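Input record (one chain):
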Amino acid sequence: MRALADPTRRAVYERIARSEEITVAELTQHSGVSQGAVSQHLKTLRTAGLVAERPEGRKVYYRAQPQGLAPLLDWMSFYGVFWRDRVDALRLLLREIDPVVLPPPKDASV
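The corresponding structure, as predicted from the sequence alone:
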């Protein structure tokens, strides 16, 4: 989570995830970030297991490693259940307070 907390690093990761493979030079183009800064972000993403690299000659190609997101997905699914229950309870409470504002759904029993 810390690796993706930085907005610039998250933008770098998103560009990598949208590409099959991408080089540092391609990541740097139109990013407004220096090649050195992109390289530092890539190092952090690589250390976190979010990207893999493949050297080919003088270029290094980066690709997303989806399994690196597993801890984040586990954490989100744990808290997702917590929030889903709380939102359902809030929905019921709001219906009790003012059923006109939040009428019951047409296809659900909640």
